[in-house]
Design brief:
This protein is of the alpha/beta class and 754 residues long. It is 52% helix and 14% strand. It has a 5-stranded parallel sheet, sandwiched between helices. The protein has a 5-stranded mixed sheet with strand order 7-9-10-12-11, covered by helices on one side. Strands 14-13-15-16-17 form a 5-stranded parallel sheet, with helices on both faces. It is globular, with a radius of gyration of 35 Å. The N and C termini lie far apart (90 Å).
Length: 754
C-alpha cells in the first residue's frame, strides 16, 4: 500500500449500487485515488476520456444493460485496456461463477460482503503483482536486447575475421610449392593448419550464438550412417598419424542402412568429441564405436569415444560442458581450442532429445557417450549428391540476375554460361518486376527458371523485390513459384534466415563459389531441365597470356583470386575488369553524391556494392577499405555514430582516389596489350553487310536481355578493323560489356551514331 507523498494509484470501482460504491470508497480512499462508476457504459466513457489508464478495476458481475462478464470481454479485447488488472466483486459466491470470471481474464474474485482489510490486501497484492510483472518484462526485454546485441556483434566481427582467414586458407591451397624448400613448405603447412583452427573457432562461436538466440534449427534428412562413420574414420585416422596413437573403430552392422536426422550436426558432434580425444591423448589409443543400444525400452544411436588420454579430475566434472572453459590449464596450456566443442555437442544432443555422458579417470583416460533417439530412415529418399558432378542445364533454361552493378552481371554470366544457362539481367528490383511481367504477357507460364537476387540495392532492395514477386505470384495464382537465390556479400550469421523469411529459396555468398552454385542448380532446377550423364569438358587456359601478366603487375590485385571468383574463366574476368573501368566514374559519382548529401543509407548501399566487386576482382585491401566505410556508414541499428561519420568524411575522398588509381592502372594495362596486338596482328577489314546482320542480332539480344547473345556479337565486332567506324564500334562494345542495353539500342536505331 502506498504511503507518504508518493503519487496515489488509481482504482476504478464499477457497481450499479451507490451503497456498494460508497462502502468501497470509504475502505480505499486513504490509500488510492478511487473513481466510482455506476455501469459498464460509464466505465468505457471514462476510459475514453482518460489520458492515463487506471491501475486496477473492481468490477461487479450482475449489472443492468452490460454485466461484468461482457465488460471484461471488451476490456481484454482492446489493446489499451487488456493489461489492466481486474478483480470481480460479486454476491455470486458459487464456484462456477468464480471460474467463469477467472477464465475471462480476471485476476481475482471477491465475494460480497467483504471486510475492508480483505479488500485492501487483495488490491495491494494485485498491484504488487502488476509491478513485479512489469519489472520482469523490462528485465526480459533488456536481456533479449543484450543477447541480440551480442549476436549482432559476433555476426559483424566474424565477417571481418572470416574474410581475411578465408583468403589465407585459400591462398595456401593455390600457391606454388614446386619452388619451395623443405622449411618453406613446413611454414606453409603451419599457416594452413593455423588458419583452419581459427576458422573453426569462428564457426564454433557463431554456432553457440545461434543456439543461444534460438535461431539454430535442425535440418533432418535421410542419410547413410555408415557413410558418415567412414568419412570420420578416414579423416581422423590421418590426424593420429602425426602422434604416437592407434585409431580404433567399430560399426554395428545391426544398425539400419539409413537413419533420419540432421546428418550435418551428428557429424559435427562426433567430430567434436573425437577431436577432443585426439587433442588430449599423447600416446595410446583413441577408439570410436557407433552402435544401436536399448535404453529405457527405446532404441538409441550410441556414439562412444574412448581414449587413453590425460583424463579429467573429479573436481572438474562440473565444468566439462562449461563454455570457453579449458580444464587443468596448467597441464593443457599448449593445447589449442575455445572450449566450445563439448557445450555445442551437448546443445545439439538436447535439441535431438538425446544426451551426452562421460566417465573419466585422471591420468588414465575418458569415455564420452552420445545417445540420440534412433529413427530409421528410407534409403530411397536420400538426396543424391548430383551436385558433386558438374550440373549442366538443358537447352532453353533462362536465369534472371538482379544486381545494381553491371560488373556483377558479368561475373554471374561467366559462371552460369558454363552450365549452359541463358542469362538475362536487371539493374534494379523495379526492372526485374517489369521483366517478369513482360515475359508473362508474352505467354511464358514460367518467366524464368531461376532468379539470382542481390540484397543491397538502392530504392528497392532484394528483400522487397522478392516479397513483391511472391505477392505477384499469389495474386496471379501462379501454379509454380520461381526459385529465388540470394546472391550477397552479406554472409554473416542470420543473413540466410533473413533471405528465407523474405521468400527466397537459397543463398550463395559473394564472391560466388562454383561448388555452391553447382549445389543450387542441382537442387532448384527440375530434373527435366538437367542434362543427365554430362561430363564437363576440360578447359585449357594455360600458356602465355600477356594480358594476365600485365594486370598481375598492378599493386594490390591478386589475379589468381580474381580468376577463382569468376569461375576460372579468363574472358569473364577480363570483361568484368573492362566493365568496371568503363563505369568507374559513374560508381564514384554516385558514391560522392550520397556523401555530399549526407545520405548515409544510400552511401552504405553504394560502398557495399563496391566492396563485393573489389573482392571479386581480388583487390583485398580495397575491398576491406570499402567494408570499413560500409560498417561506419551503417552504424549500430542503422544509426551511424558521429565518430563513424567522421571516419567516412575523413576517408571517402582518399578511397575514391585509390579506386580511380586502380582503374587507371587497369586501363593502362589494357591499352598496352591492345596496342601490341594491333601492331603485331593486323585485323581483317570488316564487311558492312555482315555488320548489319550482326547489329540486327544484337538488337534482338538487347530487347530480350540476353547477355550471352550480346557478348557473342561484341566478340565478333572485335575481330575486325572497322576503319572510320572503329571508334564508334569501340564505344558500342563498351556499352555492351557494361550491359547498358538501352544505350546500345539507341545507337543501333540512330544510324548516325554508327
Amino acid at each position: 500500500m502506498e504511503t507518504g507523498m508518493e503519487e496515489k494509484q488509481t482504482i476504478v470501482f464499477v457497481d450499479d449500487s451507490p451503497v456498494n460504491l460508497k462502502a468501497g470508497d470509504v475502505m480505499l480512499k486513504n490509500f488510492y485515488n478511487v473513481q466510482l462508476v455506476l455501469s459498464g457504459k460509464d466505465l468505457f466513457e471514462l476510459l475514453e476520456k482518460s489520458a492515463k489508464m487506471p491501475n486496477l478495476i473492481l468490477l461487479d458481475v450482475v449489472m443492468p444493460e452490460m454485466d461484468g462478464y461482457e465488460v471484461i470481454k471488451k476490456l481484454k479485447a482492446d489493446r489499451k485496456t487488456k493489461d489492466i488488472p481486474v478483480i470481480f466483486v460479486s454476491a455470486l459466491d458459487d464456484d462456477e461463477n468464480e471460474l467463469i470470471g477467472l477464465n475471462l481474464g480476471a485476476d481475482d474474485y471477491i465475494n460480497k460482503p467483504f471486510t475492508a482489510a480483505l479488500l485492501q490486501k487483495r488490491v495491494e497484492h494485485q498491484l504488487l503483482m502488476k509491478s513485479l510483472n512489469k519489472e520482469l518484462l523490462i528485465a526480459k526485454e533488456q536481456a533479449e536486447a543484450a543477447n541480440q546485441a551480442k549476436s549482432d556483434f559476433l555476426a559483424r566481427i566474424s565477417h571481418e575475421i572470416r574474410t581475411p582467414m578465408n583468403a589465407i586458407s585459400g591462398l595456401t591451397e593455390v600457391v606454388r610449392k614446386d619452388n619451395l624448400d623443405r622449411a618453406q613448405i613446413d611454414y606453409l603447412q603451419t599457416i594452413k593448419n593455423m588458419s583452419k583452427i581459427l576458422l573453426q573457432i569462428i564457426n564454433d562461436t557463431l554456432d553457440l550464438s545461434k543456439i543461444e538466440a534460438g535461431k539454430m534449427e535442425l535440418q533432418p534428412n535421410h542419410f547413410l550412417i555408415r557413410k558418415t562413420y567412414e568419412q570420420l574414420c578416414s579423416a581422423y585416422r590421418i590426424l593420429v598419424m602425426n602422434k604416437d596413437l592407434r585409431f580404433r573403430s567399430s560399426f554395428d552392422n545391426n544398425l539400419p542402412e539409413a537413419l533420419y536426422g540432421d546428418e550435418t550436426r551428428i557429424h559435427q558432434m562426433i567430430a567434436n568429441v573425437l577431436g577432443n580425444a585426439i587433442k588430449y591423448t599423447k600416446s595410446g589409443f583413441v577408439d570410436l564405436k557407433i552402435k544401436s543400444v536399448i535404453r529405457d525400452s527405446f532404441k538409441w544411436l550410441a556414439i562412444i569415444v574412448e581414449d587413453s588420454g590425460i583424463g579429467i579430475k573429479k573436481e572438474d566434472y562440473g565444468n566439462v560442458f562449461t563454455r570457453f572453459q579449458q580444464l587443468d590449464q596448467g597441464r593443457n596450456r599448449h593445447i589449442q581450442g575455445t572450449g566450445l566443442g563439448l557445450p555445442i555437442t551437448l546443445k545439439f544432443a538436447e535439441m535431438m532429445n538425446g544426451t551426452i555422458e562421460f566417465e573419466s579417470v585422471y591420468g588414465e583416460g575418458s569415455v564420452f557417450s552420445i545417445y540420440i533417439p534412433l529413427v530409421e530412415g528410407d534409403p530411397d529418399k536420400i538426396e543424391k549428391d548430383i551436385y558433386l558432378e558438374t550440373v549442366m542445364a538443358a537447352d532453353g533454361v533462362t536465369a534472371l540476375v538482379v544486381d545494381d552493378f553491371p560488373v556483377n552481371h558479368t561475373v554471374a554470366l561467366g559462371f552460369l554460361q558454363a552450365h549452359n544457362i541463358n542469362v538475362e539481367t536487371a539493374l534494379s528490383g523495379a526492372e526485374a518486376l517489369l521483366k517478369i511481367e513482360e515475359k508473362t504477357l508474352a505467354g511464358n507460364e514460367v518467366p524464368y527458371d531461376l532468379i539470382f537476387m542481390d540484397h543491397m540495392m538502392p530504392e528497392m532492395d532484394g528483400l522487397e523485390t522478392a516479397a513483391y514477386i511472391r505477392q505477384w505470384e499469389k495474386e496471379n495464382s501462379r501454379s509454380k513459384a520461381i526459385p529465388i537465390i540470394a546472391l550477397s556479400a552479406n554472409a554473416v550469421t542470420g543473413a540466410e534466415e533473413i533471405f528465407l523469411e523474405a521468400g527466397m529459396n537459397d543463398f550463395i555468398p559473394k564472391p560466388i563459389n562454383k561448388n555452391q552454385l553447382n549445389r543450387v542448380l542441382a537442387k532448384w532446377l527440375p530434373p527435366e531441365k538437367l542434362v543427365k550423364g554430362y561430363t564437363a569438358p576440360v578447359i585449357e587456359e594455360s600458356g602465355d597470356d600477356p594480358l594476365l601478366e600485365e594486370i598481375a603487375k598492378i599493386p594490390g590485385l591478386d589475379c589468381q583470386a580474381g580468376l577463382t571468383n569468376t569461375g576460372n574463366n579468363r574472358k569473364s574476368y577480363y570483361t568484368a575488369l573492362r566493365q568496371f573501368c568503363a563505369a568507374c566514374d559513374d560508381y564514384l559519382k554516385e558514391l560522392q553524391n550520397a556523401f555530399a548529401k549526407d545520405a548515409w543509407k544510400d552511401y552504405s548501399v553504394r560502398v557495399h556494392a563496391l566492396k563485393g566487386v573489389l573482392a571479386a576482382f581480388g583487390t583485398d585491401e580495397l575491398s576491406k577499405w570499402a567494408y570499413k566505410l560500409e560498417m561506419a556508414s551503417k552504424g549500430e541499428n542503422s544509426v551511424p555514430t558521429a565518430a563513424a561519420l567522421e571516419l567516412c568524411r575523413a576517408e571517402t575522398v582518399s578511397f575514391c582516389k585509390a579506386i580511380g588509381e586502380f582503374r587507371d592502372s587497369l586501363n593502362g594495362a589494357f591499352d598496352r596489350i591492345d596496342a601490341e596486338r594491333r601492331s603485331s596482328e593486323p585485323l581483317p577489314k570488316g564487311d558492312k553487310a555482315a555488320l548489319d546482320e550482326q547489329l540486327a542480332e544484337l538488337q534482338t539480344a538487347c530487347l530480350q536481355g540476353s547477355g550471352s547473345r550480346a557478348d557473342k556479337v561484341s566478340a565478333w565486332l572485335g575481330e575486325f578493323d572497322w576503319g572510320d567506324l572503329a571508334e564508334k564500334i569501340k564505344t558500342l562494345r563498351r556499352f555492351i560489356e557494361s550491359n547498358d542495353y538501352d544505350i546500345v539500342l539507341d545507337m543501333i536505331k540512330d544510324g548516325s551514331k554508327l
